[in-house]
Amino acid sequence: MDHFVYKSGQLQAEGVRVEELAEKFGTPLYVYSRQTFVDHFRRFQAAFAELNPCVCFSVKSCQNLAVLRLLHAEGASFDVVSGGELRRVREIGAPPESVVFAGVGKTNAEIRDALEFGIGWFNVESVEELENIARLTGEVNRMARVALRVNPDVDPHTHEYTTTGKRGTKFGIDFDASRRASRAFANDRNICIAGLHLHLGSPVNSAGPYVEAIEKTLRLIDEIRRDGITITAINLGGGFGAHYQGGEAPSAASYADQIVPLLRDRGLEVLFEPGRSIAANAGVLLTRVLYTKRSGARKYVIVDAAITELIRPALYGAYHFVWPVAAGEVFVPAHRGADLRMAGTELVDVVGPVCESGDFLAKERWMPPLKRGDLVCIYSAGAYGMTMSSQYNSRPRAPEVLVENDRGRLIRRRETYNDLVAAEREI
Ligand code: LLP
Q1: Residue 209 lies in a domain
Q2: Residues 392 and 305 sit within 8 Å (Cβ to Cβ)
Q3: 294 exposure class (CB count in 10 Å sphere: 0-12, 13-18, 19+)
Q4: Does residue 52 form part of some domain?
Q5: What is the DSSP letter of 63?
Q6: 103 lines ligand 1 (CB under 6 A)
Q7: What percent of the chain has pLDDT over 90?
Q8: Scanning 59, 144, 175, 198, which has its CA 20 to 30 A from the CA of 181?
């Protein structure tokens, strides 16, 4: 699953003791494992190899340049959703042809940037956006390749906030409107609608919703073909699950078992946009215990990480396994599930220093006794950890370290108090 394992009661990342990294770089600290990124990416590609897919890593899940570079070296392309993400993939020299640009609200400046870059695909989410891209593309006398993001009205059975493929969400274009749009733009000089794009939600912990959505979308492709328009590509988006507790996410191979047969004889170019299934378990967040206290019947462990470093528990009620780095032989965790009640553990809430009751990282967990100064690991923080971080309460962002070749390399420095005020001073 990943390369964060206990040896002699001490957590290591690819053989490097994470305690050493925390001492060297301070806490809170994001630690990534190169080999885990590589393993996950290769497994994904191998699972779908028969379709010879273009795997566009979703930059929003983990955007550090060093991570993008290592995935690029493995053959990844990229899915971006903003001018800022576009800048990141340009910075690492990603070839434009296979970069996809998604998002419901692309600005003119972002569209012009993407055109200038020579972006491979615009994933388009509304008819007005189509018109706008056609106009801007006309200004530079170019042709933009477009995939219509369709809304297949399929329930991905995930959190309401990350459900996207159901009718009535802000995402995608309904099937009828997609067919009308493909007809309207069939002979456009500046836009070529060559693909259909789907993203159902995130995470989607079973293959069923993909199967339902693909079957519906293939029927739509056939209908569009009857109008004399050929769709050559299908982009299945991301949303493939990751193990936060263990056991909840199908393997890439088992998603593929159900998806590949639907597409193998269709002659379509296939694209994917996985984020979390590659990145979530390739990163952890290290944090130190500042204080412990009791309040009513509860015991609180107050750590130096907060919603500013990992907002997922507060935002989605998401589960992240939390455990001491120095577990000793007695407390090496048997699994990452919630129930690790055993002799010597106690029930605690792990919370951050931010001034909000919603600032918690783990609630009601059985954990070994923790005291001031203990180092604690928050697992599965590689996706949507750093990328959703903030400076709330004027907290400088935490640094990122990538473990590779038996050592931890700083790939983003800790922000300073100067960084916090710099943009205001420069006005
Ligand atoms: N493609 C599109 C169009 C997307 O909107 C997303 C995620 C992805 C791909 C990548 O999805 P993934 O494979 O990582 O599940 N912040 C939330 C997740 C929101 C995802 C938004 N879109 C979280 O922390 O769980």
Answers
A1: yes
A2: no
A3: exposed
A4: yes
A5: -
A6: no
A7: 93
A8: 59
